[in-house]
Amino acid sequence: MKVESYFLACCFLLLTGCGGDAEPVGNSDIEYVSPVDYEIVLAGNFGEPRPWHFHGGIDIKTGNQEGKKIYSVAEGYVSHLTVNKHGFGNAIYVAHPDGLTSVYCHLKRFADVYEQQLQRTGWRDTLEVRFAPGQFPVKAGELIAISGNTGNSTGPHLHLELHDTRTWVMRDPLSRLAHLIADSVAPQAHSFMAVPMDGEGVFNGGLAKQTFGFGQPDTKRQHTTWTVSREFTAWGRVGFALWADDYSEATYNHYGIRSTQLLVDGREVFRSDVDSIPVSCQPEVNVWGDYLHWRRHRVWYMKSYCEHGMRLPILHTGFDRGIVCFDQERPYRLTYILSDYNGNQSEYNFTVHGRRDSRVTPRRRLTLLDTYQMYDQCLWPLHTRKTI
Q1: How far, in whole angstroms, is CA 182 from its chain's centroid?
Q2: Contact present, 239 and 352 (Cβ < 8 Å)
Q3: How crowded is residue 113: how many other Cβ atoms within 10 Å of its Cβ?
Q4: Cα–Cα distance, 231 to 319 (Å, whole number)
Q5: Do the bridges between strand 143-147 and strand 90-95 make them parallel or antiparallel, or are there none, so unpaired?
Q6: How do residues 173-185 score in pLDDT, each as one tens digit?
Q7: Which of 82-86, 181-185, 382-386 has the lowest mean pLDDT?
Q8: CA 242, CA 225: separation in Å to the nearest integer?
Q9: Within a 10 A sphere around the Cβ of 349, how many other Cβ atoms?
Q10: What pTM value is reported for the model?
Q11: H helix runs in 242-307, sequence order
Q12: Residue 349: partners with Cβ closer than 8 Å, 6 or more residues away
């Protein structure tokens, strides 16, 4: 008992201490403005799952044209320029006094004062020029570049990223720009996946993973609540995953989900909050999402539980890692709550009846092994060193 108490104490200290740099250090009162001189419409948002990486910023539409003026989103200084690095094509980096750096990618060219700092020899150049702090100061709304379609871009647009300057952790640009973007549409879930743990769970009589549609008609509402009429059965330990998209009223595009909660009988067992992603955690998107399913069907089911060894700081669970233990013969009420950055929210409810099955034996919900696993996950730092 003393050993377990010691582990619990260590976990508490690590949990309360490992996120100490969640907010950048600096002046947090600076004003952020639009990087373009027209209404912002997004083609993609931050954190969308992609094979082997998360989408590291927001994609702002430029009317499928090159040549739009690009402005600094806040005061600061231009820290460096890159050409044909990281798939960004032409990219300009602006460091801000709040401890963040904004990055503007796929540009056609830079503003003249910065273009003159380069020695281009041809379109295949790979260049990087760094400047001293304050060498090229900029104001919020100052012209810094012209939009284009360079680098790994499938069409003209502005890819805008926001990073913690010190650690280079990827931040959600909407944390500073959401007030500039119209969005009154809630995220929408299409279906869920039940994943019985190997040898430890069964769902609807099956030992393999299964998918079930919510049966909700396509809607674009600010808030929605949906209850699935079909009821399900389960016994033992079962994980769940969700296929869902976010939307806006301004375009046909769909986006990733900012926040997902899974509740069981009103108690939170899993929560994701897609912000502050260390660059070194990029490949873990293939573990959080069902990568094999994506390979076959081009649909991402994002797990509402953590696999062993998962250390993404955007995922939050208890000692059970988000896996639901059906060990009583009674109805369990499951609820998914999806939210976007503007507070638009949708709720999905379904019932799973605990039905005893001789093929599996539910194990205790809390063991010393669980405690050790939680302790091990706490050792993963929230931030990683700067890599760019």
Answers
A1: 20
A2: no
A3: 12
A4: 27
A5: unpaired
A6: 999 999 999 999 9
A7: 382-386
A8: 16
A9: 15
A10: 0.87
A11: 285-288, 291-297
A12: 225, 226, 227, 228, 333, 334, 335
